[in-house]
Amino acid sequence: MDFLAWLSTVGGVCTTSRATELIAQRELRALRARGALWVPLRGWTALGGVHNDVTRALELGGVVTCASAFRAHGLWTPHRDQGLHIRVHRETHSARLATARRADGVHVHRLLGRIAEQRPWDGIDSIRTSLAVATSCVSAVDVLAAADAALHLGKLRSEDLAELRRQLPKSRGRILATATGLAGSGTESLFAAMLRRAGIRFVQQPELLPGEFFDFLIGTSLVVEIDSLAWHGSRAQMANDRRRDAELTALGYRVLRFTYEQVVFEPERVLRLVLGLVRRDVHERGLFPPEA
Asked: Does domain 3-50 have CATH number 3.30.1490?
């Protein structure tokens, strides 16, 4: 694979040092001369015609981080956040920094002194660095949802998350304490956080049918499933959901289903419904006792 083809597969941007591991300096200069490449910031190379969040961040003197990096890594992203989050070196005071701070929709961040500065070769902060930045920017529950997603997808190791917690101030590290990777979606993380705040005990991903796992079990008999169009929108998926619900009901469980929109936009209503059942002790008795 030639250099231009490789660069297109990794997002169209890389550090010049990474580029020179793959192509000679003179070839790099030749590609720039004919417009196949351009320089968004000294020390960086981008494909001609590529203008995206990474090149914009570089032109402002930073790299993509926080919620913008979550999006790039395929993690949960706060639904209200449409801005560009960039991280600049903690000691930078360039003219670009002043421009970045004035730019519409741009959020400028610096790392805490105890966390080592790293320059990501693709212009997008690692998940670990992005989480560190996000603990002082986005809501705690959104940080937790991103961490859960990273663990669930195998993009972050639990030991790396534990090390990050040790590096952060206690108040910020505590945000990540309940990340387990059990949640299969950001909405499951939000729902779990909702239950914790209300003091409701639960089990995530219990195996209630042979070889089949469910989102939440509250008490002994209240099952909660969080539906999204991605995983529950097709006819086949909906038919499978109804089959699972019927089998659980036959065993004495109660099944509640909530959508992404309900969990994200109507959390008080969702919690009120769950609390109502818990206060009536429905979660401990069901229609009839589940089989042993």
From this structure: no
